[in-house]
Structure formats: C-alpha cells, structure tokens
Design goal:
The structure is a homodimer. Chain A has about 160 residues and is mostly helical. The first copy, chain A, has a domain of about 90 residues: Winged helix-like DNA-binding domain superfamily/Winged helix DNA-binding domain (Arc Repressor Mutant, subunit A, Orthogonal Bundle), CATH 1.10.10. Helices cover about 65% and strands about 5% of the residues of chain A. The first copy, chain A, has seven helices and two strands. Chain A has a two-stranded antiparallel ribbon with strand order 1-2. In chain A, helix 2 crosses helix 6 and helix 4 crosses helix 5. The longest helix of chain A is centred in the C-terminal third of the chain and has 24 residues. The first copy, chain A, is globular and about 50 Å long. In chain A, about 30% of the residues are buried. Chains A and B meet through helix 1, helix 2, helix 3, helix 6 and helix 7 of A and helix 1, helix 2, helix 3, strand 2 and helix 6 of B. The structure holds a DNA duplex (30 and 30 nucleotides). Chains A, B: This is MarR family winged helix-turn-helix transcriptional regulator. Chains A, B: InterPro entries: HTH_MarR-typ (IPR000835), WH-like_DNA-bd_sf (IPR036388), WH_DNA-bd_sf (IPR036390). Chains A, B: Keywords: DNA-binding, Transcription, Transcription regulation.
Chain lengths: ~160, ~160
DNA sequence: CCTTTATAGCTATTGAATATAGTCAAGTAC
DNA sequence: GTACTTGACTATATTCAATAGCTATAAAGG
C-alpha cells in the first residue's frame, strides 16, 4: 500500500531541503517581511479602531496636519495611493467632518483638517506613538537602531 | 474668511510637526514597514510572474518540498492562510499539475509535489534566492545582519 | 456500541484595498 | 486659437483574505 512516509528520495540539494525543514519561513526574508508587516498593520488597525479610522485614513490626517496646500494628488503621491482611490477616501473623511476641501485655484482642492479633525488627530498621534514605541521595544536593543535604516534602504 | 494660506498656527508640538514636515512618512516605522513590504512583494511578484506563480503559491511549493505528510491545514498554519482560502489555492496548483492530493487517512490529504512541480520549484528557488540576495545587498552592510532578527522579533 | 465533540477539507459569500478606464473642466504650450 | 496636460472625480473590475456554514471522518465518553 501507500506508505506516505516513504517518499523522501528527492534528489535535490539536501542542504536546501534541510534548511527548509528546520524553518521553512526563513527561506524568504522577503516573505518574513510581509508577514511582519501584515501582523503589524493588523495590530495598528485594531488600535485605530478606537477612532474608527483605517491606517490609510490616519496617515492622511497625520500628513496634512499643519499644512494648507496639500491636494489629494500630493497626498496620493506621498502615500502611494492612486488619485482614483483618493477621491472616495477623502469624501469619507469629509462626510465625517474631519477634513474639508478648500479651493486653491480653479481646479485644485486643498485638503485641510477641521476642528473635529484636529481633535481626532490628537488621539491618533497618541495611538500611533504608543504603537511605534511598543514596536521598537520588541526589537532586542542591539538590533533596534538598525531597523528603520535597513527598512528604508530596501525601497527608497 | 478662510484664507487657506494663513492656517499654520496650530498650537501643537512644533517639533513633531516639523519632523512630519520634513519626512511625513518617517513618523511611522510601522507604516514604513508596510510600504517596504508592499514594494518588496510587488517586486517578488513580478519576478515570480516568470513561472506564473503568486508569492503564496511559491511559498507553498517551497514549504512542501521533500515532505510527504503536509496537509493543507498544516500548510495554512505555517503560512497563516485560513483553510477556506487554502482550498482554492491548492486546487489551482493541482489543476496546473504542480502538486497532487494524496490521501493520508480517511479525512486528511497530503499535498505533495509532482514531477512538473519539482521542476517549477527549481526555478522558484533560483528566483527567490536571487531576490533575497539583492534584497540584502540593498541594506548597508552595518545594518544587514540586524535586519532579519529585528523583523522576527516583531511578531513571532 | 452509540452519542458527542473536534478536526479536515471544502463551498459560497462578503468586504476591503487597489487597479483600470474614462469623464470633465481647468491650466499650459505652441 | 488648437493641442496637450493635469487635477479631481465616477464607475467598474480584480484581487485577497475573512466569515459562515456544510459534510464526513476521527476521537472520546458514556
């Protein structure tokens, strides 16, 4: 009959297979990167649930704070969000009274915080700073200072 | 009334606003993590386009190589994919002849590589190893060895 | 045994995030 | 002026992962 355990004769590099056997996820640092990012974003998302904002919405608030000439295309360029996707995002923030559209010229609209928007942003700042801190504290001290520089080197 | 340019008196920490002004994305390491992960996965995804596999499909092949008792639930546990999402994933790999389902007992199915699957996997290994290498080379040497350990500390 | 509970695999459906295509008006260049 | 570009937007499509629920098998307890 079929003994499922009698299958191991695969004549490939035993070293690679061995490595995979011990920690299959370690094969791909890039994959580990994705897993870590997903886990972190899920966590931050849960924290931001308190103010009912998604991560991208919170980043928009953080980004436009103190500025009066950020258009949706500028925000999109900074956060890597297509203009087609910016529109509904901003509309939802406008509908909730957190930001408003202020005409800059005939065709450009500045996205600026409203008073309620500033209040929510204050809470967002607390949440994200706490999160960032616990994030860094999870990293052993000897690796800590290398983390963000390494991350930035990857894609900038 | 509202002159959009006369808006900069926001009586918050000028330091924080300043930091945000210079590089708004650097505010959130967690956000930078997400951006980096997205960029990396897009890149790897493009490379894997050569063998018409998504990142998750390629990881499955890498994971089951040399094993004859990996069930879809085990794979899902290792890669953090729900069993509901494993089903269509595996089905597609089966349909393409890369893996096959082998009954282990009445209700468990081992997912094992076929001969063509092994051939594709060899190519996948080359691609991912190349990718992994260029990834690490982008990180300045002094940060390099700290990257993966820091990443793993975040979520394991 | 036979009933209960847990496990494995699966289907169908949903929701969120993002991408594509195209509209329209306002600005820019020649 | 005509032609081209840019900013904001609508509508739609694709992709991915999450939820709920089903069925059959296996394991555990009486």
């Amino acid at each position: 009959m079929v003994d499922p355990t009698s299958h191991p004769d695969n004549s490939e590099s035993p070293a690679a297979t061995d490595k995979a056997a011990r920690d299959p996820l370690a094969i791909l640092p890039g994959y580990t990167l994705r897993r870590a990012a997903n886990a972190m974003m899920a966590e931050l998302g849960a924290l931001l649930g308190e103010v009912e904002l998604r991560v991208s919405e919170a980043s928009i608030l953080l980004l436009i704070d103190g500025r009066s000439t950020m258009t949706s295309s500028l925000i999109g360029a900074a956060l890597d969000i297509r203009s087609a996707n910016m529109a509904p995002l901003i509309s939802s923030l406008v509908a909730r009274g957190l930001v408003e559209r202020v005409p800059l010229d005939g065709k450009s609209m500045a996205i600026v915080l409203t008073e309620p928007g500033r209040a929510v942003l204050a809470r967002v700042r607390t949440i994200t700073q706490d999160f960032e801190q616990t994030l860094m504290l999870r990293i052993p001290p000897e690796h800590r200072d290398h983390f963000v520089p390494a991350l930035n080197a990857l894609w900038r």
